[in-house]
């Protein structure tokens, strides 16, 4: 019995294109993915994200180009910062006024 290994070609997509690929066939809430890249000292952070109309969250995080299947503290920190930023923006722009589910229960 012989074993033959065949090298497969894998196309590496830039993060924003990868997000578009993940959302193909879904109704997205904005036309293009949100994408930014920040370098500070020796740390580089690149984020690409796009909201769609599904209820399933798909998060893919990487550290040093290695996929972190369980997320980790960097993903927890990012999600907390994103939530805090969106809540602050919505509050400052009176976007949350009149939403009953935000009001404290008696």
List the defining traits of the structure above.
single chain; 106 residues; alpha+beta; two-stranded antiparallel ribbon; 2 helices; 17% strand; globular
Write up this protein.
This protein has a two-stranded antiparallel sheet. It has a two-stranded antiparallel ribbon with strand order 3-4. The protein has a domain at 13-58. It is α+β, with helices and mostly antiparallel strands and 106 residues long. Strand 1 (34-40) and strand 2 (43-49) form a beta hairpin. The chain has helices at 15-22, 73-92; strands at residues 34-40, 43-49, 62-63, 66-67.
Summarize the structure.
This protein has 106 residues and is α+β, with helices and mostly antiparallel strands. Helices cover 26% and strands 17% of the residues. The chain contains 2 helices and 4 strands, in the order αββββα.
Task: Output the structural class.
Answer: alpha+beta
Q: How would you sum up the major sheet?
A: 2 strands, antiparallel
Give the oligomer, counting copies of the same chain as homo and different chains as hetero: single chain
Low-confidence stretches: none
Number of strands: 4
Mean pLDDT reading: 83
Order of helices and strands: HEEEEH
* Shape type: globular
Alpha plus pi helix count: 2
Distance between the termini: 74 Å
